[in-house]
Each structure stands twice: as C-alpha cells, then as structure tokens.
Amino acid sequence: MMHNEPKKERLDVNQKMVALCVFAAICALSLILIVNLSINTLSGIRAYVAGEGYWAKAQKESIIHLSNYILTEDEEEFDSFKNVLRVNLGDKVARQELLKDEFDYEVTYQGFLEGKNHPDDIPQMIDVFRRLQWTPQVQTSIDAWTKADLKLEQLVQFADSIRLEIQSRDVPLIQKAAWVTELEEYDYELTSLEVAFSNSMGNMARLVNTILRWSVIFLGLLLLSIGIWLTYRFLNSTKKWMQTLKESEEKFKNVLSNSRDILYKMNLETKEYEYFSPALENMLGYKEKDFLKGGLEFTLSRVHPDDKKEMDDVVDSYDEINSSNFLPTVEFRLKDIEGNWVWVSNVRTLVKDEEGNPEAIVGTVRDISNRKKQDQKLEKSLAEKEVLLQEIHHRVKNNLAIISSLLELQKENISEEMQELLTSSQSRIKSIAKVHEKLYESTTLSDIHLDVYIEELANEIKKAYTSKEKDIELSLDVSSLNVDINDAIPIGLILNELINNAFKHAFNGFDKGIIKISLQEKGDDMELVVANNGNKLADDFNPEESDSLGMTLIKVLIQKINGSLEITSDEWTSFNITFNLDK
C-alpha cells in the first residue's frame, strides 16, 4: 500500500494537469471565437455607419434636387430627385425583409446592394441585424431607421404634390419660398434621425469593443496564469524526473557493477564492441578496453580450439544476419587471463532499426563452468544407471524364463487339464518377459515400440500352435506407438489371452483360418482389434457373466488402460478394445 500511494498521487496530479490543459484549450478557443465574433460584429457595425453615410448623402442630394426643381421647374431635377432616393429605398427593402421571422437572404442582399453598401460587408450587416436586434442600441437604430423611412415617404408625397401644383398653374415666388422652407424642415428632421442612428450604432460599437477588450484581458490573464502554473509544474516535474533518472542510473550502475554476468553490445556494421560491463574483469580477468579495442579478433583468439570452428561460423553469419539464421544462445569455452578455460553461455538478441534491419547485438555472458561439470557428472551417472537398468531388465527376463522352465518341468506326471493351465501361465509369463526383453534392447529403457512388440508376441504364440493339420495365418496392421512398461504389460497380457483363445478354440473343425490383429488411431483414442474367421461365439455368451480366468483377466486389464470392450460375432468374431493412455 505504501508503494501505491505515490503512484496514485502522480495519477491525480496528471489528471489535474490534463483537466487544466483542457480548460486552457477551451479558454483559448473561446478567446478565438470571441475575437472572431467581435471582429465580425464591429465590421457589420462599421458597414452600417458607412451605409448611413451613403443614405444621408442620398437624402441631402434629394433635398437639393427637389429645391432646384421648385425654383427652376426643371423636370430633370425632379427625375434626379427620384433616382437619388433609390439608395434609401434599397436600404428600406433590406430593413423590412430583415424584420420578418423568415427573411429572404437574396432580397435582403439586393436591397443593401441597391443602397450602395459594399458586397463584402453585406453578410456582416445581415448577421448583426439578425443577431443583435434585441439589444437596446440596435433597437434604437432600427427605430430611427424606420422613422427616417417614413419621413422619406412623406417627402416623396410632398414632392409629388409640388409637382402637380407646378404642372397645373404658375406658382408664385412666395409659395416656392414656403416650400423650400418646408424642405429645410424635412432635412432637419431626417438629419436628426441620421444622427440618432449613428449614435446608437456608435454606442453598440463601443459596447462590443469594451466586451472584447475585457474578454481578451480576462482570458489572456487566465491563459497566462495557466501557462505560468504549467511551466512551474513542468520545471518541477523535470527536476523530479532528472532526480529519478539519476537515481535510476545509479541503481543501474550498481546492478552492472555487482552483476556476475557480462553485459555487452556489438555494432553489426562495424563489427566492433560498443560496451562491456565491469563483470568482464571479475569473470575473465581482462580489462574492458582489451575487448573494446581488440574486437572480434581478440575474442576469437581466446576461444577453445574445439569450439573455434563453431564460433567462426557464428561470426561469418554476421555479414548476412537475420532472425532465421541468428542463434540466440551459444555455449563455448574462453581462456581467462590466467590461462584457464571457462565455459560460458552467450545469450543474445538482435537490435533492429526503424526499418526492421539488424543493427546490433546485445547479450549477456554467464560462467557455466560449474553447470558443465554437473552435466558431466549427471551424464556419467545416467550412463551407469542405464547399464544397471538394462541388467535389471535382462535379469527379470531371465528369471521369468526360469519360472517358465520350472512350470514346463511341472507338467510331467500331471493331468492334461493341469497341463493346459500351466501352459496358459507360461504364455502369460512369456508376454511379460517379452516386455522386459524389449526394454533391455531399447535405448531409452522406458518406452517400448508397441508395434514391434505385438508382432513378435503374436508370432511367438503362433509358433506354439503351428502344426501340419491346421494352417492359421496371422494378419497384422499395427500403427507405430511408443508406450511405457506400465501400459505395455497389460496390453501384452490382453493380446496374449485373445490370441491364445483364438488359436485354441476358434478353429475347432477348421483346416485353416485367419487371425487379424490391428492397432489404429480412432480420434483421440487407440483401437486394438483381434478378430478371426473361425467359429462364432455362443449366442448366450456374455463377457460380464463369464467366470473364466482369461476373460476375468481381460476385463481387469482393460480397466487398467482406461479402455472399453466391444464384441461382435458374425462372419468374423471380433474383440474391439478402445483405450486412451493419456487419461
């Protein structure tokens, strides 16, 4: 638990730093969005102020043209009055469309374009109107704009009435003076509305500018604070990491200094050693510089003559080395500085570059002299035990042969029934003796080639029953299978009983016949079959109810090898034994 607490604390700090970085990113993104939004808003407000200038200019020119028309009664002046007001009427169409809940963008765009607004400014003008029309400043501007449009409508009606008067009669100069005075009133009122519109938009611009300034200041200070804190954390963490790295290096150096194994690295391109650990001097007595300067040539000069050829082949393979021909472990003898031979085990691995090509070998060299001495002792001891075990199997086989001979002598002067019993016992003894004979001949002294054993056992039994009166043929189909003595003896005894019974009872009344013996794989199991084409079994034969010694022995031995028995009797009488030695 004590070791987990610092780790948990580091995880908590890391999570806080990640959360803070995410928050800083959100602040930076918010700052970008606010600046972008403010710039677009200010651009839209600036466009409205510029548009108000065009609107005021057109309004002033319309007043001038109408005044000239009153004084000169020149129709061209009246037409100019109407044409100039198209600027104001275009802005009016745009305003009226923008006030709708679902406005037509194209109609609005064309209206502002008619009002001589720059095409690049129109999207910002539409955005400001739709997004900020709820604010008091923009609402005041819209109200002034609406009143100005109404005042212009009154001006147009006033102009139309003047034209009718002029066209219908001669207007006295005093009347014209009155109309000019009234035009001045219109001009004054429209100018006041223009000023109100400009002031409201100016107030909006200053408000947006204030919001932008303080937002930038706030978010900037916040980001600066986060940056300072992260810098502090980074410097503090770097200091801790450097301390940890230094401690780790000290531990690593301590491990290398006290390790009994030699660690090394060799560059495959230059075929030169790049590093040797201090254990080199403790194991072989040489200085690190001896191998670093001498390289592979120095190493090979210290290899035992009996290992020289193998090591030369290993070194030659470095020219075209790859994972398939690389030996991860090499054992050989090196001469130490005092001239003694030291058995070493070189456990290596390939270091590959980014493209997967071998560029170096790193490995450890361990002194295995004591292990080699132990291996030699074990090999000698094992050889002695193999000889002893062979002798035991040979003596067991001979003792069983003596027992069989004693039983043969015992057959004299006894009844025929007793002779058959002793013969059956002899056959069983011989099947066991055959197992020990095979083990005596085997190189492993533990496994028996079951196919060879079955063939020899079957042929020996056949020899015992060979006569001129009957021609019984053996047919063998046996797969290769190795078993140990614990499995070979019960299988041999089972075969002995079945083959003997077939020779004894299956061919009564027959001159010839066939006994088939097979051993084959059946899925995960093995199937042993002994079949004959002689007499069928009695209809009431039941192996479970049979009290004969042979059948009882067969059932017990089948259980010992985890098997099951199936008997069929039609054209062939077949004993099928399925068993699995791995269970």
Q: Which percent bin holds the helix content? A: 55-70%
Question: How many helical stretches?
Answer: 15
Q: What is the SS-derived class?
A: alpha+beta
| Total separate domains | 4
The total of beta strands comes to: 12
Unreliable residue runs: 1-7
Q: What is the first-to-last residue Cα distance?
A: 45 Å
Nearest-integer average pLDDT: 79
Largest sheet: 5 strands, antiparallel
Order of helices and strands: HHHHHHHEEHHHEEEHHEHEEHEEHEE
Envelope shape: elongated
The protein's oligomeric status is single chain
Description:
With 583 residues, the chain is of the alpha+beta class. It has four domains: 13-234; 262-367, PAS domain (Beta-Lactamase, 2-Layer Sandwich); 371-445; 449-583, Histidine kinase-like ATPase, C-terminal domain (Heat Shock Protein 90, 2-Layer Sandwich). The chain has 15 helices and twelve strands. It has helices at 4-72, 75-84, 86-98, 105-114, 122-132, 136-168, 173-258, 279-284, 288-301, 305-316, 369-410, 416-441, 450-465, 485-506, 549-560; strands spanning 262-267, 272-276, 329-335, 341-352, 358-367, 447-449, 471-478, 482-484, 512-522, 525-532, 563-569, 573-579. The strands form three sheets. The protein has a five-stranded antiparallel beta sheet, with helices on both faces. The longest helix has 86 residues, at 173-258.
